[in-house]
Amino acid sequence: VRFEGTAHRYGRDVDTDVIIPARYLNTSDPVELAKHCMEDLDAEFVGKVASGDILVADENFGCGSSREHAPISIKAAGISVIIAKSFARIFYRNAINTGLPIMESVEAADGIRDGDRVAVDADAGTITNVTTGQTWQAQAFPPFIKGIIEKGGLIEVAKEKVAR
Amino acid sequence: MPRPMTITEKILAAHAGLDEVEPGQLIECDLDLVLANDVTAPIAIREFAKTGATRVWDPERVALVPDHYTPNKDIKSAEQAKLMREFARAQGISHYWEIGCMGVEHALLPEQGVVVPGDLIIGADSHTCTYGALGAFATGVGSTDAAVGMATGQAWFKVPASIRFDITGAFGPWVSGKDLILEIIGMIGVDGALYQAMEFTGDTIDRLGMDDRFTICNMAIEAGGKSGIIAFDQRTRDYVESRAERAWKVHHSDSDAEYARVIEIDATTIEPTVAFPHLPSNTRPVSEARDVRVDQVVIGSCTNGRIEDMRIAASVLKGRRAHRDVRLIVIPATQEVWRQSMAEGLFDVFIDAGAAVSTPTCGPCLGGHMGILAAGERALATTNRNFVGRMGDPTSEVYLASPAVAAATAVAGHIASPDDLD
Predict the structure, then answer these.
(1) What is the DSSP string of B269-282?
(2) Of B22, B101, B106, B359, which one's alpha carbon is 20 to 30 angstroms from that of A147?
(3) A22 → closest Cβ in B53, B145, B367
């Protein structure tokens, strides 16, 4: 799978409360949630994201609450993939489980500025800054997690188990 | 002979049917309990249906607690609570608590004996790590993990490395488990224990009561931890003996188990501590925070809404009144805490102090209801997070502290320790 889009660059410790504030958690409708994505960190986020764009951040992306509304709202807002130096562990699980592509790379996060054009090959794990011409290799997923990603998320894995 | 293991590795190995596990290993485990609440269950129920399952794997091993936006704050919240209630009824789920019995989930489940030592628990709420105080492995997950857990009784885990915190010495006046865990988060940062288990040991921990231990394990997630854990001892036994609805199992770390880090902490040096906006790691001693005036004080939550918290707050508030510019909100975390507080006359103290005493709810902690902040307002709360917009308007601020500091702050009108009051 390949993605290409404009990078939206944020810092460290982006928490799930700013990704989707709790005042909007009285619904789980992705379209409703997407309207408020990143609202408390960057009120202009929803307006400037084009479908396929890429979110880039520093360490500990998605820390805090376990709300799956966070990856749901990011995906529904049009983001194709998140590149970060590291992810908070519940967000990491939630992204894998729900089929939101994520990639870990300190070098790529350091080498991408807000507004750069970025291309990602999720299968090969490569990240290219089209604007500067640099390419990086993201951290590989363990085979077990890769299996979940390739099936399209944890529900698809569970379907086979439930059917047995 | 299996390799020497930590308590966390032993619990995970036992639930994976393995003699031994090591950090980094990916394993599939049998679960003892799956938890969700009125915010996370609606998505979990939707995803559960997508797995093709029609019945939960065990209706006695699923806990559903309507505690976040309840008693329902608006129509949308009522719809979410209704969806969960109807699922609980249709599935014959025994661990569902209606309003009137309901409490804040992480205070309620240990109190009701639904979680026991040696358990492996996942919960679609990040503060599920609270149950580690019982000597269990408990971790927060998202709704999809909870859905698959409900359908299959299993979940996948990466075995975490452990950090051991050896805490020794006696607490000074007005220092509590909350100050200790804030100190630790301030020391290692909000991702200082990322993907790792936090194991708390030492004579300081040995002397602490269960309520302080729950507070400490509750905030492991605020350091990025996968779990927090305190091994079973006589205090744990005294707590669970009259409550546990199932047999429990005791695990201890081997003396030669391997740790990613061992951090020694001298408890005698810890002062009453406050986390400033907008991260729980942004800690300072109360003595350096006295110039911060507050509009609201909240005492409650899964972190500090238990009976000891109510007693400490009342001991500070007795014979005093909240500052006229401060709105004081007290929220006992469960009906049992409520009844006990009432029986001990604590509510008289709170009401005489000018406090609003609420029925159990997560409410203001996550900016749900029952104490939302306006633009620019400041609250000091005994809760667990102070992120941007956490309790209301994105320009409002939350300061985190213990019940003693919260009560003193309510009286003083600015951040204060009980010793600062006349």
Answers:
(1) GPPPEEEPTT-TT-
(2) B22
(3) B367
